[in-house]
Specification:
The complex is a heterotetramer of chains A (362), B (569), C (339) and D (326).
Chain B (H helix, E strand, L loop, with lengths): L5 E2 L28 E3 L14 H12 L7 E6 L14 H10 L4 E3 L5 E3 L2 E6 L5 E6 L13 H11 L15 E8 L2 E6 L6 H6 L6 H4 L22 E7 L3 E6 L12 E6 L3 H10 L4 E2 L7 H5 L4 E6 L3 E7 L9 H10 L2 H8 L4 E2 L23 H10 L12 E2 L2 E2 L1 E7 L3 H17 L2 E7 L1 H9 L5 E7 L7 H4 L16 H12 L3 H18 L2 E7 L1 E6 L29
Parallel strand pairs in B: 2-14, 3-12, 19-20, 19-21
Antiparallel strand pairs in B: 1-21, 4-5, 6-7, 7-9, 8-9, 10-11, 11-12, 13-23, 14-23, 15-21, 15-22, 16-22, 17-18
Helix pairs in contact in B: 8-10, 14-15
Chain C lengths: L11 E12 L2 E13 L4 E5 L6 H9 L6 E10 L2 E2 L5 H7 L4 E4 L3 H4 L6 H12 L4 H14 L5 H4 L9 H13 L5 E5 L7 H18 L2 E6 L2 H7 L2 E6 L2 E7 H6 L4 H8 L40 H5 L5 E4 L2 E3 L17
Parallel strand pairs in C: 3-8, 3-9, 6-7, 7-8
Antiparallel strand pairs in C: 1-2, 1-4, 4-5, 9-10, 10-12, 11-12
Helix pairs in contact in C: 4-5, 4-7, 5-7, 7-8
Chain D lengths: L1 H28 L15 H10 L6 H15 L4 E2 L4 E2 H36 L4 H14 L3 H12 L25 H39 L2 H8 L4 H39 L4 H11 L2 H29 L7
Antiparallel strand pairs in D: 1-2
Helix pairs in contact in D: 1-11, 4-5, 4-7, 4-9, 5-7, 6-7, 6-9, 7-9, 8-9, 9-10, 9-11, 10-11
Classes of the chains: A mainly alpha (362), B alpha+beta (569), C alpha/beta (339), D mainly alpha (326).
Amino acid sequence: MILGLFGLLVGLAGWHAGTLWDTLAHTLEKLFGANVPYTLRDLDFLVSTLFLLGMLAALVLYSGLSCQRIRQADRTAQGPERQWSIVKRQFLKNRLAVAGALIILALYLVAFLCPFLAPYDPVEQGDRVQERLLSPSAEHLLGTDRFARDVFSRIIYGSRISLLVGFLAMGLAVTLGTAVGAVAGYYGGWVDSVIMRFVDMMLSFPTLILIITVIALWRNQSIWIIITLIGLMSWMGVARLVRGQFMALKEREFFQAARALGAGTGRLIFQHLLPNSLTPIIVSATLRVGNTILLEASLSYLGLGVQPPTPSWGNIVYDTKGNLFTEWWMPLAAGMAIVITVVGYNLLGDGLRDALDPRLRE
Amino acid sequence: MNRIVRITSLGLFFTSLSCSPSSTPGDSPSDSAQRVIEVEARPDRGRSEEHNLEFEARWNELYNTPHDNGDTLVIGTIGDADSLNDLTSAAITGSNVIGLLFLSLTRTNPDFSHAPSLAESWQFSEDHLELTFHLRDDVFWHDGVKTTAHDVKFTFEKQISPNIGWATIKWKQFIKECVVVDDYTVKFIFERLYPYQLMDAVVGAVLPKHILEKVPDEEMVSTDFNRNPVGNGPYRFKVWKAQQYIEVEANENYFAGRPPLDRIIFKVVPDQENLALQLKSGEIDFMDGVPPRFFEELARQENLVAYIAPGRSYSYLGWNLLNPLFQSKKVRQALTMAINRQEIIDSLLFEFGEIPKGPVLPIIWAHHPNLPDFPYDPEKARQYLAEEGWKDSDGDGWLDKDGQRFSFTVKTNKGNQIREDILILVQDMFKDVGIAVRPNILEWTVFIGDMNKKDFEAAVAGWSVGLKMDMTTIWHSDSINDKFNFVSYSNPEFDRLNDAAIFEMDSEKAKQMWWRAQEMIAEDQPYTFLYSPKDINFVHRRFQNVQMETVGWNYNLEQWWVPKDKQKY
Amino acid sequence: MTDVMDQTSPQIEVRNLKTYFYTEDGVVRAVDGLSYRLAKGETLALVGESGCGKSVSALSVMRLIASPGKIVEGEIRLDGLDLLQCSETEMREVRGNRISMIFQEPMTSLNPVFTIGNQIMEAILVHQDVSRKEARDRTIAMIRRVKISAAETRVDEYPHQMSGGMRQRVMIAMALACNPEVLIADEPTTALDVTIQAQIMELLAELQSEFQMSILLITHNLGLVAEVSDQVAVMYASKVVEHTSTAELFASPLHPYTHGLLTSVPTLGMSKEQKLNVIPGQVPNPLHFPTGCRFHPRCPVAEQRCKQEEPLLREVKPGHWAACHFIENGKSPIKGADR
Amino acid sequence: MHTYIIRRILISIPLLFGLLTINFFLIHAAPGDPTDIFYNPDMDPEARENIRRIYGLDQPLGVQYLKYIQGVVLKFEFGYSIAKKRPVKDEILEALPNTIQLSALALLLELSLGIGIGILAAVKQQSTFDNAIRVTSLTFYSMPSFYLGLVLLFLFAGGVSATHWFPASGMVDIVRHESMSTLGRLGDRAIHIFLPSLTLGIGAAAGISRYMRGELLEVIRQDYMRTARAKGLTERVVVFKHGLRNALMPIITIMGLSLPFLFSGAVIVEQVFGWPGMGRVAVDAAFQRDYSMFLAVNLIFGAMVVVGNLVADILYAMVDPRVRLS
């Protein structure tokens, strides 16, 4: 089912360019009149993230239901609702985790509402002679860059790239990793050893350098290529994880039983193994988002990120580090934005782990 | 020293150079309170075969001013050298070091005329096809061997060897052979007559035969000499730590006497901010091609002196003439008028630059002072475009013509922030006249590849102007394929003029032809000539006798010195 | 039969011990007013269903209750010394030295990364100042004592190289290394299979007579109790409900719960018609015990009174203590309780 | 043991081979050409052709591949660097020690800081101290290395004159180093390597401390800890002897896995602090399409990762008696 979701996901990635957008935009124009707050780019982001949030929700739900399955399999007398109330309580109890969740939530709101929140258009340039490199003030909270663009607005819009990259790349990585890990873990034997050798090989690439090379294969680094590359570069961890899970679960009674009852491969994987591996997958996925965001930032810093003038936090730092002597607040702010986001995701991930993982429960 | 035309790549390799300061020689800035020295440009004298006594006198004066020895100069450079062997070096850092380690037959004067160096004197034969050099007999390689005519001949043979791939091999194309008359006399025999015979003969550092003759041509690219050169110049090679620094030390038995500074160290720092930081904190003493954005901060530093020199390079926005969009001259002129070049200079170069009207910069003798120009005028631009049929018929704010929107991609190379910025600015400026521009910033190698394949609509790039007046490789229709006429500019009349001018021995006649040629290009606007950046150099004020000259900031590097009481190291 | 309660100088005496756990959903009264005495060289069995607070009480004696658990009240006297008044340092002197403990799961109770020898020696080295050499010799001797063959080689083996039974022997060796006065055995055999169980218990009995130590045996296995213990204390819902000599208990269980407990295990010579008695309902939630007699919801003879009044543990007949309102002159309220 | 190591090495050979192959075709597939760095109008197309011929770039890709592999396998020869005008081997032999120096120190920092803080946080679990530590370490963990580097650079390397305590780039004071006493040189190296290794190590350290905390909390729950306490051991002995050793085992594996990230980090850090290491060589090689250099660098990185993991596994087997290498 993950694969299915991934299918959709890829579809979306391709789809975003498709004509469907124009029609969407035009209908919006008809609805709101000419002055639609959202541009095509916005819609693009909106739909994809909404979709992804949906996907995550689905996954969590799925894993929740499956938790119940494994509980019963394990003969521990706990209904799903009890299970869930525990998880919920555990999570809410963890103040840091809640904080993380709130940060992420806030960030998504910001990303969704950019057109309303940002005081200026992020790429619109002001009077480049009079209004460039202004210091922070009431009308320009973080001053303006050398194109007289409002840095604050750029950082607000930058959130979209980072969030999009983080989310999509992670989705890709996790899906891929799960698929590979599942195959290796389920079949074991030589299949496993071949796959794992490959994983080892991938792991021994210094990611950044490889991406630098591969990215050159494309003329212009559209955000989608970057996302794909980052995804393709960071699935190995998940693969190992899932494989391990499968290996362990295969020893469990409920699986032996199911197999003894002659359940088919598909059923075994999707009904028994996968659901019970989801908890760690979700946790590691959440924690992974942070890494992907950092990777995107590093790429942008090397000048390999999204093409200007589109703002991303990474390329704002890259772009304004020359001002460090004088307008130091610009790179500082953009960098802090990255840090806060990643912190948010990691807190969230920790929280989820502590909540979902019974072993860690005090 | 050997300066050549090169595409300024990655923005790291601006061939920098300044002109003679208004201040008189010897009087160095630290005496006067002056901390920013603006230098006025003076064009070279074109074809110059006779000595320029005035400059030679000054050179010797500089050399003989009483001075203290000692101290070290740390030069910050963003890129490492690739080789210290003139035959294989491609990076600018390399050629700067080579300038200190090796002698050429002649030294270049501030006005591009030739001064004695390894060669004491030279003269042409009657038919002007033979050029004889008389070498000094007191020049020694750093390993003690004498430098002789045999080295000169050997060097020439290596330079033209196809199995070595010397970068400026083309300069030797009209030299038939090099003959050793006696140990200190060498003769170059030319196939034909042309203005730059002397320059072509002397270009390139003379190399030690007794060391390199053992090396097969194919192995020249990787021979140990590339990293452990033995020269005969004022400084001798000491150590090169890859990606860290190259250190040279004073050559005690240099024929003109020991240079004052004990050591000169080229420190490699791969990051612009870091370099500026070290200049500020005094970890490095000198940096050329300082990005304008740092000027303000660095000029504030008490212990730094700035030298502002007119640029030897210009950046342009080239229109691919094979693309139907840009085939109309009027459209190209309109595009130029749509760009506020002064603003680019003001905002991106912090006013350290000028608008070049044509491809030949003021510092070149053939420069045309009043070319037709297309100053910023969006109104006129729209009008021109309208006349060419580009109107905003569907009222969406973008110009269109028979249903096709006026939009194109502008490519440039990554790493040169100013160029990247220009794309952003230009995109905004074109928007005002209703033209949609998509920036596309590519890696250097990819960018060059696309330019060669003509796989671009418009591109921002730059040329740095060479010593020779020759427009062939960039503008001639023969250069369209796998040469440097990227935009495929083709104009028979221009070709004819150019070909004639190259070989015109009469400077005045030549000048007229070059002017005509420049007018054509200015008229046709195959490029929009964006800006010619001034070159910003910062040097620590303790250094005396700093004489930045037209031929480069390192014109008299070997003569810089520091008073004992001010010496740092 | 000797009189447990006023026996001279009990080895260990627990009075009205209360250990509570302060969880976010409320106070769990794991041990709630527990009292018992254990005489020198004797074995007291603490019996009860799982979750009735047996193990917690044991850990309380060792003062190994970690937060959110806390000993809120009571006395624990070891030869008159009140452990609850001891400082942590003094307590450390007691642990593993005068009182030591073996745990339920031999598989996980040994540290996987140290040799068993190392782990036994540790105990000796902390409590007695002897050279490592000496300590090692003793360790080997100890291992031999618990009937592990080839002690000299076994001493350097790691837990994972041993069977469950072996590990439990190692645990015992570790516990007895400094021949303690009291050994607390918390379900020492539940994790082992029957044949091994017997061996281990045998071993314990042997060592007991050898070391003259008292054993507090915590178990739910009445079979074991019958075999080894001199005294029995039956726990229900964090309290002792009956306390007497083993023989007496099995002869005439007075408390309805004890009765239920006994009749719920098959005994030899039990005719087929006699069917196993099952105690209805389940163990009450320690978060909120029933008012009055905590057993009343499950008690066959419970009445209104049981709901209000909490019965005290009283001597219902000489040497026999029980907590039930309806025990008159040593007669169980349940018909045919005495056999 | 030995057989195990040998077997592992044998297994890793095809792995590295695959790595080499993939890289080879990747870098050649990438547009652009190494001779582009000689690009200037004075160079005739013929001259470029000469260079291409000298470096054998004119031959079909397959042939180039076979030749390269042959060179590597038979003569352990990595070819010539077009950009550096010298045998690849020399360049690497110069850069590798520097990167190893940097990474090693970073690793040391990572472990000492990470483990130390992790333990503190675990022992003081749920205390405000614990939370403070967690948030701070998380912040560093979530900080892009280039950003941290930039900040440190400007705070302590000259941006703020008041706190100009460290040099901004390089490995040594290139002017004075030669004339220093042995001790002086050591100090010189120390202050030069400090900021880079800090930048590289601190993020990872934060990561480790997070793991460490988790592991220790996990271990503290184990039965054998109770046993240890029951023996009358002091809490310190219980935690540090019985707890730590168990908690450290997973850290070893993580350490092994963290190597590639360390190298990726080096790419950035070396750029920011002008550290003359493999990272910079790699980036240059990638951008300049310096084929043989690029391949060699990646091969080395790969090999180091393989060895690192091997070492990690061996260490693991040493601390965990349950694991048998065979």
